[in-house]
Each structure stands twice: as C-alpha cells, then as structure tokens.
Amino acid sequence: RKEVEQDPGPFNVPEGATVAFNCTYSNSASQSFFWYRQDCRKEPKLLMSVYSSGNEDGRFTAQLNRASQYISLLIRDSKLSDSATYLCVVNMGNTGFQKLVFGTGTRLLVSP
Amino acid sequence: EAGVAQSPRYKIIEKRQSVAFWCNPISGHATLYWYQQILGQGPKLLIQFQNNGVVDDSQLPKDRFSAERLKGVDSTLKIQPAKLEDSAVYLCASSLRGWQANEQYFGPGTRLTVT
Lengths: 112, 115
Prior knowledge:
- The complex is a heterodimer of chains A (112) and B (115).
- Chain A is mainly beta and 112 residues long.
- Helix content of chain A is 0%, strand content 54%.
- Chain A contains no helices and 11 strands.
- Chain A has strands at 4-6, 11-14, 19-25, 32-38, 44-50, 55-57, 60-65, 70-75, 84-91, 100-102, 106-111.
- In chain A, strands 2, 4, 5, 9, 10 and 11 form a 6-stranded mixed sheet that branches. A 5-stranded antiparallel sheet of chain A has the order 1-3-8-7-6, with no helix packed on it.
- The model of chain A has no long low-confidence stretch (mean pLDDT 94).
- Chain B is mainly beta and 115 residues long.
- Chain B has no helices and 11 strands.
- Chain B has strands spanning 5-7, 10-13, 19-24, 31-37, 44-50, 53-56, 65-68, 75-79, 88-95, 105-106, 110-114.
- In chain B, strands 2, 4, 5, 6, 9, 10 and 11 form a 7-stranded mixed sheet that branches.
- In chain B, β5 and β6 (53-56) form a beta hairpin.
- Classes of the chains: A mainly beta (112), B mainly beta (115).
C-alpha cells in the first residue's frame, strides 16, 4: 500500500463547477497534513494546511478525518486558473523534524 | 525576498556519466531538502539537512548519490554514475527550522535527462 494515495485524474470540469479531491494515508501517527499545488513544469507551492477541525480559504476547503485516515480538498466555483496538479502531503516525521510524503497528485483541468 | 535558487535548470547526460546540481536556500533557512520527482509522481525526499548536518538520508541511493552542505548554506547533490532511471526533476526546498509546522519553499528544480 502506498503511504499517500490519490486518484491521479484528470478531473475535467467546467468553470464554476465544484470539485472534490480525496486522499488516504497509511501512517496513523502522522501529525500534520497539507495540500500543495503544482503547475505544469513548475515547483510545488503550499496551498493550505489541513487541520482536524477543517479549514477554509476562500473557495478552498480542506478536511481531515483521522479515524479513516482520509483528507479532502473541495474547490468551489472553479476558475480556469485552478487548472493544476494538487498534491496531498502528509508529514510522517517522528523526531520533531518534518518528513513530507507526497501523493502522486490529482490533475485538474478547468475548461471555459 | 529571494526564493530558493537552483542551477542548472536543465541537464542532459549519457548514462554512466556524472552530474552535479547546486542549490542556494532562502537566506536564514536552517533546513534544506533535496527531492526527486519522476514524471507522473509526487516529489520523493532524498536527503534533509539541518544546518550542515544530515537529518534524514534514508531514501538516498548512497551507492551513486551524494550530497553535502559544508557551510550550512548552499548545497550540492551529485550522481555518479548516472542511470537511465535517474531521469527526473531534482527539487531543492528550504524551511526556516524544519520543525513540524514550518512551510517548505521549493526552488524551480533541475530537469535531468539521462540518455
């Protein structure tokens, strides 16, 4: 089983649509979780952290279910500029230092 | 604030040759990471430095890969000899302290093609 699993997609959606990505992780002791965004041929950039209580940043909502070891990202009112790969990232460090483990990414294509 | 700098941006070599990549982290960042990203996959951590000490190199293929951060600032990653399966983007990242909550900032990467 992969440490972090995501559906690679692509997800093809029209502008204005709502889309959700899911991710599962294997290490129940993991403490922190993130979504990174990676544009084509660019470096990954932090989109948002994921907290147990869930968190929202504009059109983006992230949620964590520790019991099911499941993370989600919801994008409302999709824009053309949201087209990118979304990487689910789990910190599996156990010494106080970060050790980020990345999923393969889910590709999103938003069309006019 | 300047970001993470990497060079070269692109490199093409033949198998069995050697290659080196350079990274300069964001000023003041104590922690530096090297990742390998193969096409269609997420980045995989190769090695992590805290200042000039190695924190984690468990996924570094030590028979052919080496890395150093001698003065606790910039770093080099070397592959010798290269194999076809080393074709990937090599990403350098840095964070302020490397603790659990610190954000990692990535450089633009070096795209390596081994023929």
